[in-house]
Write the structure tokens for this entry.
Amino acid sequence: MNAAPAEHARIGGWQPFSACDWPGKLVAVVFLAGCPWRCGYCHNPQLLQRRHGERSWPQLRTQLQQRRGLLDGVVFSGGEPLAEPALPALLDEVRGMGFATGLHTGGSHPDRLQRILPLLDWVGLDIKTLPEHYPAITTVTGSGERVDASLDLLLAHGTAFECRSTIHPALHDDASLALLAERLSRRGVRHYAWQLLRPGRQLPQHFAPIMPGWPGAGLQQAVAAHFARFELRQG
């Protein structure tokens, strides 16, 4: 990926204040357009195509500068932010404003992640399923191996991070959730979260509403025992 200036970033939107996108931090979230994967339950399908973003960084830069002292940091999300050639320049500018920098990523570009890790204070890595099941979700061969490589980088680099899995009974059963958690724990993951898949018009018809009480308390307790911090988020 050839680096691009920040002004060339394709921005699909932003959230001025969020207390739930970086645990323990009050942040702004910048959504970058473009993603190489095509997960059928994507919550932001309008951000899949990079051309759907706008080159609006100069205006957003001014708004962020006005929030210095009010925010702890800025999180880049998507879409898939690693697909944005201007991401290194964006991170540089945000750090120059005095903000901590965070990233939400699916781990699709481990080579690009490696290059920007020195610019990041925290990463939220999406773990969709077991590696061998990834192509059925992303429609991309080898996507599970890319996520594995991204996790290896985070574990080796020492950047603060958490893994999170968006879960739904149409995608996961109790056995696969338990196995996924066990594998992550064995790799060295210390912070893990489940996020219930949000209902919405974008969901395929076979994604029925999640029944109250799923996943069960016993499974949650068993999974929590593997991690220093574990939580179930409502999406």
Observations:
- The chain has seven helices and eight strands.
- The domain at 6-233 is CATH 3.20.20.70 (TIM Barrel).
